[in-house]
Amino acid sequence: MKLVITGSLGNISQPLTEILIARGHHITVISSDPKKQTAIEALGASAAIGSIADVDFLTTKFQGADAVYAMIPLSFTEPDLGEYLRRIAKNYVQALNTTKVRRVVVMSGWVADLIRSENVENEFNGLKAPITFMRPGSFYTNFYQSIDLIKGRGLMGKLLTLRYSGLWALLTGKSGLLMGNCGGDDRIIFVSPKDIAEAVAEELVLMPEQNTIRYVGSEELTCNEAAGIIGSAVGKPWLKWVLLSDKAMFQGLKMAKVPEKLAETLVEMQAAIHSGKPLENFHRNSPKMGKVKLADFAKEFAQVYHQK
After folding, report:
1. 87 and 15 in one domain?
2. Which of 68, 139, 211, 224 is 20 to 30 A (C-alpha) from 170?
């Protein structure tokens, strides 16, 4: 099959490309970075350098494809995440309908149906081809964003004290804390990008008659259990995941200079996870868990952690 993969050589798209090439498919990888062309071609794929914000570019590259994996990278610089997601989704729909691609797999998230203002799935309602919306849990790779916090540099690079609703969170090098408005004993579905890639690879070659939703997970843990696994891997077995109030989390994101509307969205997403509703939806769909456990990823995380 002729398949188009968006997402450049990211955490999902690179292993996805490798899987599909090994299975004999003809792969085109879309990347906005010209420097990635050599690496893409080294995998045995064709490189298409351009922007998913350019609908004419997408239309050209989707021409003749049997199926497309469509993802929208999160942007922490866009002031309005929802508007950005809707804009790019509309580009996909226009290009896919124009080229009459027969199969589409869209990357979504396991809280997608709970965050209506940011639900990118709604923007694909006008797509004529059958879609599978992938709803993975919390990526293992998200822990990379917390390296400074784990090392004790905090959000501002020094001792940070947050006090809301009687809660003090002291972030020092010795303390070893993660933080969020989901945390503590909240149960979360964590997932390896490699397991997501395997699931996407399976979906791309299917031709369902109707739209479908597929949840993807690798391991279910409490936040503190996950923190303990990551902490043990980097020599901080006491690592904890502190549960903050929504207000405290929002203020922390503002201190980190995250755009206000984006900060509101991130708080809403974590609040949804804290509610337990995404976990209920995941269990209701009873997906098969992936193979990569957090302890496996923690070894890779530790290597990156000690290099910084």
Report:
1. yes
2. 139
Length of the chain: 308
* Number of separate domains in the chain: 2
Q: What is the CATH number of the domain that holds 80?
A: 3.40.50.720
Q: How far apart are CA 28 and CA 43, in angstroms?
A: 11
The CA distances from residue 115 to 42, 71, 266, in Å, are 39, 18, 10
Per-residue pLDDT of the chain (308 residues; tens, 9 = 90+): 999 999 999 999 999 999 999 999 999 999 999 999 999 999 999 999 999 999 999 999 999 999 999 999 987 777 787 888 899 999 999 999 999 999 999 999 999 889 866 678 988 989 999 999 999 999 999 999 888 888 875 433 323 333 333 233 333 334 456 778 999 999 999 999 999 999 999 999 999 989 999 999 999 999 999 999 999 999 999 898 989 899 988 988 888 788 888 888 889 999 999 999 999 999 999 999 999 999 999 999 999 999 98
31 within 8 A of 37, measured Cβ to Cβ: yes
State the DSSP string of 30-85.
EES-GGGHHHHHHTTPEEEES-TT-HHHHHHHHTT-SEEEE-----SS-S-HHHHH
Residues 6+ apart with CB under 8 A from 76: 258, 259, 262
Domain end marker among 168, 201, 217: 217
The residue segments making up the domain with residue 251 are 141-188+220-307
Q: Which two structure tokens, joined as six digits, stand for 77?
A: 């610089």
Q: Which amino acid is at 47?
A: A
- Residue showing tokens 């209506």: 116
